[in-house]
Amino acid sequence: MIYRSTKGTAPEVSLEEAVVKGLAPDRGLYMPERIPTLPKEFFDRLPKMSLPEMASEIAAALFGEDVEPDKLKALTEDAMNFPIPLVKVSDNILSLELFHGPTLAFKDVGARFMARLLGYFNRDNKDRMVNVLVATSGDTGSAVANGFLGVDGVRVFVLYPKGKVSPIQEAQFTTLGRNIEALEIDGTFDDCQSLVKQAFLDKELNDAMMLTSANSINVARFLPQMFYYFYAWAQLAATGADMDKVVVCVPSGNFGNITAGLIAKRMGLPIKRFIAANNANDIFYQYLKTGKYSPRPSVQTIANAMDVGDPSNFARVLDLYGHDHAAITNEISGCTYTDEEIGDTVCDTLEQTGYQLDPHGAVAYRALKEYLKPGETGIFLETAHPAKFKATVEEITGKEVAIPERLAAFMRGEKKSVELPADFAAFKSHLLKMV
Ligand SMILES: N[C@@H](CCOP(=O)(O)O)C(=O)O
Question: What is the pTM of this model?
Fold first, then answer.
């Protein structure tokens, strides 16, 4: 498969080059040149398939030309080795619980797949040190750090906005040591993401060290996220539900997650429509309303992983729909909620249904409650475990949130981070010291 840049001015590349480069040299994002359609017989079998089985068939359709079949199957099945249950919350609304992986957030799916795929591409270059740069507003950092922890030939730099992630999220990537270094940036997530993007375009840096990204700008991080859309659909289909009116609501920040869902739909997954639910960082919602994209500095909210002021994957959404605003609004609607509304949703849902939402899932659940039409069934992506936001959730509900042991383990480590200003020269000089 050939990968092309959304900006259209960079050379086309192979999957390996797209994964290793991360970002195209014209600052565009790589996209597969064609999106394969899966046959009807695949969808007929779907409700009976396990997650690793279906993931490896989908991976074969996308990556099969570039990776040996048995290796691709093995690495996909190994990456997808945790449950992703679809759980009923209220009458016509179900939660796709994406928090049962090692770091308790949906990013585990893409990060684990990417770590294994990069290992495959690097198999004959054992002496080559790959430097993974990752900007995080909370969840990506820990998933990537854990996905690559102890992997020979890989060094990970996690850039995060100082004081703007939850204490547990911070512990998940600042206490690991070994080949993981946390860089605490005095700025926002967008500053972190911009430092990473500038690094890919800096000749001196790229001559000195091999850099790649593990954010959703990297095709190996974002495309595997489509696996769980198929799995959600399959679980619902297995219940005998009416599959013509399925609406998926995605809590949206950097828009990699919803873009993976849109690509799943292009591959044939019959999702009727999508809702992109924003917190106060409602850049996409404003775009849907006005047709104008006006990025702005992100503000801090209680759904911090979505605190993104210039979503990278907006470029991919535009690309998928040929920059046609009407076509986009036909398939995707949006909404935006304040912290107060998010908090009320966490509280009311717990009281009314007994289901403990995290602040991100709450944004999406509320959107379905408000915007599902009669006869539709809504699935929302519950992107992280509520315990990752323990203090916030407990303050809202007044009830204790138990911390799973694998999360508690992170809290026992000692925090180590390097503080840096949101300044490219300082970041670059720090990286160059590692050479
Ligand atoms: N929401 C992310 C921010 C980056 O998103 P990504 O999907 O591009 O990695 C986070 O929680 O870190």
Answer: 0.96
